[in-house]
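We now fix the convention by which a protein and its fold are recorded. The integers have meaning only within a learned vocabulary of local backbone shapes. A record is reproduced here so that you can trace the correspondence yourselves:
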Amino acid sequence: TQNKAADEAAADHACTQSFESAVALVKDKKYEDAIVALKTYLVSCSTHVSVGDANYWIGECLYSQLKFTDAIPAFESFVQTYPKSTFLSRAMYKIARCYQELDKKTEAKKRFKEIIEKFPETLEAKQSADRLKELK
């Protein structure tokens, strides 16, 4: 059992390194490379603690590339799959922003209002209120 524990610790460390390397690519604005790295991480580390965060960062990469139509389902899937994530209000805000960027004002307004209702104390709620004023 000592070997098994050592193997699991090594695998966990490798997954942590893989995730951190992928996020570093996001922060370096190497979005295509980051998406590949995040998807590779998700395949090889499917039970790792940062799987939810990796899914969030894929949506961020798509959003940052102005691929709003692709970012929406990525963020929607994240919101459905990881409802307790610390990134939840951010993901929901990005969904609303995607709709705004795609000139889908009714959907954007609905989403901004939902954020204000569900996360009233967050930066995203304040930003949503500002966005709603713009959409009138």
Q: What stands out?
A: The helical segments are 2-27, 31-44, 51-64, 68-81, 88-101, 105-118, 123-134. The chain has a mean pLDDT of 95. DSSP finds seven helices and no strands in the chain.
